[in-house]
Structures are given as structure tokens and as C-alpha cells.
Amino acid sequence: MSSRRLLLIGLALGIVAVILLNIYLGQIRSQQRSVAVLRLAPGVSLSRGDVVSESSMVTEYLPSDFGSITRLAVPDTEESRAFILGRKLNDDVGSGDFLLLEHFTDEPEERFVARIAEGSRAMTVPVDQATSVAYFVDPGSRVDVIATFEKPPAPRPAPPPETTATRTEDDVRKALVAQAQTQLYAASAVVRTRTVLQNVRVLAVGQATTRGNYLGLQDSGFSTVTLEVTPEQAEMLAFTLSQARRGLNLSLRNPVDEGTGELPTVTFGTLRTEG
Fold first, then answer.
1. Average of per-residue pLDDT across 122-141
2. Are the CB atoms for 240 and 234 separated by under 8 Å?
3. Could you tell me if residue 265 is left (phi over 0), alpha (psi between -120 and 50 degrees) or otherwise beta?
4. What integer is the mean pLDDT of 231-253?
5. Cα four-point dihedral sign 196, 199, 200, 203
6. Which residues pair with 57 in a beta bridge?
7. What's the CA gap between 128 and 250, in Å, rounded?
8. Domains and CATH numbers, the chain
9. How far apart are CA 138 and CA 217, in angstroms?
10. How far is the C-alpha of 112 from the C-alpha of 93, rounded, in Å?
11. Which of 6, 88, 203, 264 is deepest in the core (most CB within 10 A)?
12. CB contact set of 139 (below 8 Å; sequence gap of 6+)
């Protein structure tokens, strides 16, 4: 075989390899711009009351702007698969049809509201990495809720009325000292930090309600925590949220520590005393 023929064959194989590589890269780029959803496998049809198995569904990639089906179909995620596997269908689904969220029976005992203890309420509070103990707060944790807020100081007795007599230099000095003391008093009394709730159970962080879902949030973190509280605590928490200067801080408890007790309010005066 001549060297020219070998060269032509090599060039042809190189062109084929480039074409196949471009096709492969195009498929990868298409998948990156698409939404993965689930549908029934070809040749599989299910009736109302049947349950979905792993082998009965396949992944379909749709363009992100394909339309409403990308929002209605069950997304191909670990959480979605766990939700629908073994769950009964409430309608017939034909071969190759998309699996929609509305196809599956709502099981009240599996909904988030079923996690709330009878007589309790769920309330969500905003958090960040610092106020949620570096995101170590997870579903099932027990926390204390701490808030720093402004509280108007108690009114001071009104100073005696000035006489019409000419004020002396000593009177002026005393008035300035009294004014400075009043300002210092107001500054020290207005900012207070207090533990408003103790031993509160965490129902969810972000939308993660289980340890497994929480572990999936560790890279991105979360911005909210949902707490289980009594109706009275819910009112206190709502008021505190409206008054807190810089949000709330969560103090993470050891799982076996369930003790509660009256804790002192901290002010600038407290810090000066401790110092």
C-alpha cells in the first residue's frame, strides 16, 4: 500500500473522528442547556392504581425553553425519584408519556405538615452562615433563638425647673454633666440581647427536611430555617423578627441537652460589669 493511500486513509479517519467528536460535544452542550425529566419507557403502560418502578421510567432531555411541560413533568433528580417510586398513580399513563407530578396520589401523612407535632406551629426565619452556626444546623437539631433589639429606656425623672436667676458657671457645668449622663444612659439601655426561645426543634433548613437532603445543601448553604414552636412562641417569634436589629442568631444544642431556664438580658451595662 502506497504512502499516499495511507495518508488519505489517515485523513479520512481524522475527519470522521472530528465529526464524531463534534456530535458528542454537541450532545453534551445540548444536555447542559436542557432539562432532564422522566417519562415511561417505550412499551410500558401503567393504569390508575399501579406503582412506578425504576425499570419503567427513562430520562428525557428537553430544551429549557420547551414550554410548560418542563415545569409540569417530574424532574429527573434523586429527590423526585425517591418521591414517585412505589407511589400509586391516580390516572392512566401511556407508553412513552411524560410522568407528571399530578399523576401521583398525594399522601397526607408524607407531606411536610405531617411533621409538625399536634398543637405546634411551623415558622420560618431568615439565617446566614454566621447565624446558623456555619450551616451546622440541620433538620432535627435543637436550637435556642437569640435576638438583639432596641428597647426604649425607662423615662428618667424630669430635671427641676430652672429659676429665673442668673445661672452660674457651676450650674452650667452641672447641666452639661447631667446631659452627658442622660445620653450615656440612653445608649446603654437601648440595645439588648436576649434568648427568646429555648430548645426549639428544627423542622427544615431551606427546603431540606431530612439529613440526606441537608447534606446536598452543604456546598450552597441555605437562607432559611423552619422551627417548630407553640402558638405562643410563634407570636413571640413574629414580634422579635419585627424588632430585631440584625436578625436572629441560632445557638446549636447538644442532642441530649434539653434543659431550659431563665437567662439574663445582656446590655452594655452588663458588659461593663463583667469587665
1. 94
2. no
3. beta
4. 92
5. positive
6. 40
7. 10
8. 30-103 (3.90.1210), 121-151+190-274 (no CATH)
9. 10
10. 27
11. 203
12. 202, 203, 204, 205, 208, 209, 210, 211, 213, 214
